[in-house]
Amino acid sequence: xxxxxxxxxxxxxxxxxxxxxxxxxxxxxxxxxxxxxxxxxxxxxxxxxxxxxxxxxxxxxxxxxxxxxxxxxxxxxxxxxxxxxxxxxxxxxxxxxxxxxxxxxxxxxxxxxxxxxxxxxxxxxxxxxxxxxxxxxxxxxxxxxxxxxxx
Length: 151
Ligand SMILES: [Zn+2]
Prior knowledge:
Blueprint: H1 2-12, H2 20-45, H3 91-112, H4 119-132, H5 134-148
Helix pairs in contact: 1-2, 3-4, 3-5
The chain binds zinc ion.
């Protein structure tokens, strides 16, 4: 893959008409990189291992709102999810960001899609959506954090 990226850089530094074979190859590589980004987003959204993308990071919950339990390590590749003390401290900021974005979207939908709601009702809908998605945010934020700081 490093070789392919190197080719991409070489191509970006030359004119398109000078080497059509390499430039077409570079375009293909860019498309492949786009697909791999979509795969990464899908992998994060499905809460899978940041290393192999095969096994889940969390155990399956018994009840819909029970506390999510994280696995010690990946069942497929052995990648460790449990880290040193304080590794997951920054997750609170990721979770805060997720809740903020979801709250703003919920508020905008309540305000501009549903007419006739009072401001108190709009606020209650916003807070309700944020609370409903809190457990999802807890798990998603940890997987995002593992992808940002994999080592
Ligand atoms: Zn894995």
